[in-house]
Design a protein that fits this description.
mainly alpha, rod-shaped
Length: about 240
């Protein structure tokens, strides 16, 4: 627990930690519930696509060509002429009928096989395109967070850089080095008062414009006018 706490602050800190834990558990439960619903919907859509070859009776099923419509078309193409010849002209020979059935089954199997192969190829292409778009979006979001000048993102990037370079990161022992290397302007009071030049915010109590500060324990951005860090719960010096 950070130093400088008294009993009332300790109690407030514990209450805040308990509330944040409750909110986190509630959020996790909502996420799990949403994932269960999404999994059920995905399984239902997958079963529907496996049976119908498309996305149900409407829309994309007609455009992509689903197996029931192929079967109906093949039936109409082969058996309607046979029915017309049988009923109208009175021509019916069993061997012609059986040959027609064999030809029909062969053509039907070929059409279904070609359709499945084409559709699986389309699905692979669409899946690759979705993954590429997702990677581009994630990269753009990551670059946007860093380039937008977000203090928390810049602080996180700095910590990752010094961790990759093998430097120590242990609070007071490296505070002077951090103050010299961190891409912010530091003051004499240390990490609790480092701020970006020209970066200001509105005080939640007075409404006045003030410099944005950072927590001296976790480095998170501090809302101006608050007494505790919203991330780690540490007391804000001078608040």
């Amino acid at each position: 627990m950070p130093p400088g706490f008294i009993n009332s602050e300790c109690l407030a800190y514990l209450e805040m930690v308990a509330y944040r834990r409750y909110r986190r558990d509630l959020r996790d439960e909502r996420i799990r519930r949403g994932m269960r619903v999404a999994r059920r919907v995905a399984m239902r859509n997958a079963r529907r696509r496996m049976f119908w070859g498309g996305y149900g009776y409407r829309g994309r099923a007609f455009r992509r060509g689903s197996s029931p419509f192929l079967i109906i078309g093949c039936l109409a193409f082969f058996f309607i002429p046979i029915a017309v010849l049988t009923l109208v002209l009175g021509i019916f020979k069993p061997i012609v009928f059986f040959i027609s059935i064999i030809v029909f089954l062969g053509v039907l199997a070929a059409i279904i096989g070609i359709t499945i192969a084409v559709r699986s190829k389309q699905d692979r292409v669409e899946r690759a395109e979705r993954q590429a778009r997702l990677k581009e979006r994630l990269a753009a979001n990551r670059e946007g967070r860093v380039e937008s000048g977000s203090p928390a993102a810049a602080w996180r990037r700095f910590r990752e850089d010094i961790t990759e370079n093998g430097d120590e990161f242990e609070g007071d022992t490296t505070r002077q080095e951090l103050r010299q290397e961190i891409p912010f302007t530091g003051t004499s009071r240390g990490m609790g008062d480092i701020h970006m030049e020209g970066t200001t915010g509105l005080d939640v109590n007075t409404g006045d414009e003030t410099d944005i500060k950072f927590c001296e324990y976790c480095g998170s951005e501090i809302t101006p006018g608050t007494k505790f860090c919203s991330t780690c719960g540490a007391a804000i010096p001078g608040s």
